[in-house]
Amino acid sequence: MRTGASKQRGVFIVAVIAVLLFLGIPYAQEAGRTQETPKKKSSYMPVDIEEDFTSIMSRLKAEKPSVMKRQMDLLNERYDLSNRPAKGVTMSRGKPVQEGVRARLPEGVTWENLAAMSPEEIREKNLFPKGFLPLPHPKHSEGGMVFPKFHIDEIKKQEARDLTRFDVDFDLPDRFLPEFPPAIFLTTRPDLGDVSKGKVVTIDNYYELFNGILNPKQLEGLRLLLTPFPQQQFNATEDRRSERPSFGVACFDCHVNGHANAATHLVGDIRPQEFRRRIDTPSLRGVNVQRLFGSQRALKSVEDFTEFEQRAAYFDGDPVIATKKGVNILERGSQVHFMGEFQNIMDFPPAPKLGIDGKLDPAKATPAEMRGQELFFGKAKCGACHPAPYYTDNLMHNLKVERFYKPHMINGRMAASDGVIKTFPLRGIKDSPPYLNDGRLLTLEDTVEFFNLVTGARLNEQEKRDIVVFMRAL
Fold first, then answer.
1. Do 128 and 207 fall within a single domain?
2. What is the 3 state secondary structure string of 357-376?
3. Per-residue confidence of the chain (474 residues) as pLDDT tens digits?
């Protein structure tokens, strides 16, 4: 009887093991040992941080020099970063505009050579200019908001709020960024011109600057746009990236004076991390004529965009982390509406050479500007996506730039494809460097050269110069 029972137990154990193996559950052959299953990558960040803040800060500070050297080596390999301002060309408040194609060419290749090649030939010979490839965040493995030093210094001076990150610095040289502080133009009071009075508008001075110019709803909307709220890297938790606990960031820390300072970030709605895309902060000028918001998200109103930024983009699209760090839930019927109402009166800068149809007045334009306009709407076909008067079609387009290069990793960023990107308005474009959705194009000349190659327009050197001259007049 015992022998039969033992056999039955043996058969039962074998059967159980077989079932476990069939279900994919590992069975330890040696007593006391279990087989470890590799941990699957997750989109969620850890909530319970086991490393103390002092240790985190010390470790990341020590890593910072190598992080920045890696990024600056990349920029110097890609671009000519020298200071070469265009003669007599400035932004609205006088900052010189940098000129010339800054993306470096592969050795022994000219722009004419490249334009004569097919995308497949450029791809196979690995000749696509590196400056035209997707630009990674200065610390792509983490991302998060990174601000230029001139903005950090001004906010610290006015509000004693520090936007310095101890793990990374902003990467692009100031000369390739929008002027600071930018001018402010209002659709409701064009007679006033620049209402900023040369100041960065903050929570400390907005009332004295705008009381009597804005209605009470707009004034309250502006206050909210200037109010700092917790964000992924700037908050009070032990996994922040500011040395001191932070009140957070304001909408106008990136969209300074309703324009831009080129502060960068990563899109919150793409995973895994290496496929997330760098963001070049777009201007809020002229949002009243736009119908799409977010470079790739196709949000349908500025109110949607405002609410999305606070609820999701501030926290990399992670609602659990947002709750932990102190998400600011805006009230849609009043607060979001007020913020949207102010954003909708941000105007483009004056363009005295344009007529009421948004095109050049022949009596005011130079011959080069007129030639550029003809090319823009003709041979170059720029006007197909950027029609007058505001030079946007309010649509999304896929340039399929990946036709020109093989997928590869660049400083933690997988260059594979960009997908669809919204058509940004070109009114006032000289005030908004760098260009494209991730800021990879440093000048308008870079932009013309990029689109000449990607669209196959086959422009000659004079034609390229004329289109740049025309865009500076918009």
1. no
2. CCCECCCCCCHHHHHHHHHH
3. 444 545 555 544 444 444 444 444 443 444 444 456 667 778 888 898 999 999 999 999 999 999 999 999 999 999 999 999 999 999 999 999 999 999 999 999 999 999 999 999 999 999 999 999 999 999 999 999 999 999 999 999 999 999 999 999 999 999 999 999 999 999 999 999 999 999 999 999 999 999 999 999 999 999 999 999 999 999 999 999 999 999 999 999 999 999 999 999 999 889 999 999 999 999 999 999 999 888 777 788 999 989 888 888 899 889 999 999 999 899 999 999 999 999 999 999 999 999 999 999 999 999 999 999 999 999 999 999 999 999 999 999 999 999 999 999 999 999 999 899 999 999 999 999 999 999 999 999 999 999 999 999 999 999 999 999 999 999
Range of the domain at 372: 96-135+352-472
Q: Which residues are CB-neighbours of 273 under 8 A, at least 6 positions away?
A: 140, 141, 143, 412
**Cβ–Cβ < 8 Å for 236, 242:** no
- State which amino acid sits at residue 232: Q
Q: What is the DSSP letter of 138?
A: T
Last residue of one domain, picked from the residues 343, 367, 383: 343
372 with 467, same domain?
Answer: yes
Structural contact between residues 161 and 248, judged by C-beta atoms closer than 8 angstroms: no
Specify which residues 278 forms β-bridges with: 266
* Dist CA 321 CA 231 (whole Å): 10
**Confidence (pTM):** 0.90
Q: Which two tokens stand for residue 209?
A: 């600057």
Long-range contacts of 199-203 (CB under 8 A, 24+ apart): 200/151, 200/154, 200/155, 200/158, 200/256, 200/257, 201/226, 201/252, 201/256, 201/257, 202/155, 202/158, 202/159, 202/226, 202/252, 203/159, 203/227, 203/228, 203/250
Q: Could you tell me if residue 329 is inside a domain?
A: yes
> Which region, left, alpha or beta, applies to residue 177 given φ > 0 means left and ψ of -120 to 50 means alpha?
beta
**Tell me, what DSSP letter sits at residue 56?**
H
* 3-state SS assignment for residue 40: coil
> Would you say 393 and 386 are in contact if contact means Cβ atoms under 8 Å apart?
yes
